[in-house]
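Q: Convert this sequence to structure tokens.
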Amino acid sequence: MFCVAGGVTAAAGMLLAPERAWANLLLAAYYLLGLGLAGAFFVALQYMTGAGWSAAFRRVPEAMTAVLPYGAAAIVIVLLFQPSLYSWTRHGSGAEEPFLWFKRFWLNRPFFLVRAAIYLALWIWFAHKLVGASRRQDEDGDLVHTSRNIRTSAIFLVVFALTVWLASYDWIMSLEPEWYSTIFGIYNFAGLVLSGLAVINIVAVGLERRGVLRGFLTAEHLHDLGKLLFAFSTFWMYIWFSQYMLIWYANIPEESAYFVKRLQGFWEPLFILNVLLNWVVPFVVLLHVPAKRSPGMLLKISWVILVGRWVDLYLMVMPPFAGKNPVFGIWEVGTMLGAAGVFFLTLIRALSEAPVVPLRDPYLAESLHYHT
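A:
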């Protein structure tokens, strides 16, 4: 139902409020891609570090990668059919500055589209390789699949770092081409992983409560997932503060204009809410060990973080299109619900395609006896 509502809203928005509708589609597509990439990153990191603790619920981040083609399709539609979202396609890439020649080279529409195609193809291919090998491991129990995934993960993590960094510059930062931040890519990485960990928590706890992961997901697993959530929330805040503080302190007009716009009118409460949802609330609650081991508390904090991720992306994407004050109505709600529907339907279908617990995984025994 949410998918249909989102599709109808998006279609109507293209006719009635095209600028807002297309900007919201970009936001939703980037959100979906981030969740899929977070799943692939988590899986690759576990293989690369030889971590066995997560094997019991590894099917959850694997299933998250199934949303990548849908996010890719949405971002391709935006880039192909609404290039005017990016002002540099109409007015050039910025005012006079020492490196204007490089902006003109980089913000070139054909090159821009080729880069996007490369990012998306690499992400989908690597995710397919990682998940496919994991499922074949379940079918024949051959350890060669795990060895291949370790090698694939090593390459993917390098590719992931470079492409996520560049994609955030291309698709989000270039919405305001006069502004730049050297740590914008790291900031996006922090938000991407934080929201992905929130989804892993929500789905893993949900599966345990339904009995699917009962006996496999323990309080020790939850404790470590809670610690990761706490750590990446704090890392997100560290990068947020580093970006804001340095730009505020230097007070260079072409840099500070970005934050001045987001601290005017009703943008300011959203600016503060972003920090509250993504760091203050998770930090205060998860500082205590019992909260990290409580399924109910992890669920609540994870939902708070997912809402915070939307607010964070809204502040990145919408100010150039919404004017002096933020707007929130049917186009935002409908697109957001549609994206949520696509994600969770895709996730459920992916989870149904393979055993929820990888019974032939060589790390499963370690995971089941974790901290015992």
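The longest helix spans residues 18-49.
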